[in-house]
Structure prediction request, 314 residues.
Amino acid sequence: MRGTAIANNTPQTFALRASLRRGARWLRDLERRTRPVDPEVLTALARRWEELPPGVQTPAQMLGRKLTGCEGTHGVFPACNFGCQPCYLSANSNRVRVDGAHTVAEVKRQMAFFRERRGPAQYAQLIGGEVSLLPAEAHAEALEMMRRYGRMPMSFSHGDFDYEYLEEIAVRPDGSRRFDLVSFAIHIDSTMRGRRGIRHAGSERELHPERRRVREMFDRLTAEHGVRTHLAHNMTVTPDNLDEVADVVRVCRELGYSSCEERSSAKRRSRRTASWSGSSPRRLTAALMSRKVPAASPQRRHASRWRDTRRAPS
Ligand code: SF4
Prediction:
């Protein structure tokens, strides 16, 4: 045994061990790099799982297993030129700073936080106001910033902008593509007020031409510049338009929207009934089914205060 140990300490065996260690390190690194999930994502998923209340750590839970959750910017651009009812903005919207430089800086701050907490390769919405009111250059910069921090961005907009604006976001002044893919969620429904083409639609059907116009803008971008597009359609559902949801979904599918999202509203003054303020999701769902409306609450007063502060539709 003693003779063997002495033989193992020759310069050749030291060199052999060093190269074996290097080989093992290389193999470990290769295994990590070719894992189906990035280790940073795995760490973020594990943290997300630990943060979940025990009651929702069920076998069917996707948060913390497949996803870290939905992401969106918050309060970076709380301005809008529409006067919808309901609206998703806060009471101080249209009263705070909303210029391009400020928006991009705040987007950067929030994306750095997401990257640190949620890891890379996550979807995130540029949301929290009407982002098409941002100058196109600032809008594009915000999207680039989101990508830089490993987000796959989607702009959330009412869609009341022109092709030239979309083109300026996706294509540089020299004609080269700034993005290979642009992703937008377009909110169009009859609860909205202020659209240039139709200020106040009486039904969802009246808005189908607008849905088509938006789809055609994005198709033109693909045809002229090769920019691929992902277009989602959003709408707010109230007792007034509930019966038209199926038709909207059918039309959006025919027009080539990639997905449809319907949000029920708890703040809608129904033309058929009274007020929807203060409904819990459960009460609202029950009311949507029965068409009975909960009593008004103090939230209604809050909504009125907000409406008084917004700019007139352009
Ligand atoms: S488009 Fe309508 S719902 Fe959306 S932020 Fe503007 S006013 Fe609110």
User: Anything to note?
Assistant: The two ends are 91 Å apart (CA to CA). The domain at 68-309 is CATH 3.80.30 (pyruvate-formate lyase- activating enzyme). Residues 80, 82-84, 87-89, 130, 158, 187, 192 surround iron/sulfur cluster (CB under 6 Å). The chain has one domain: 68-309.
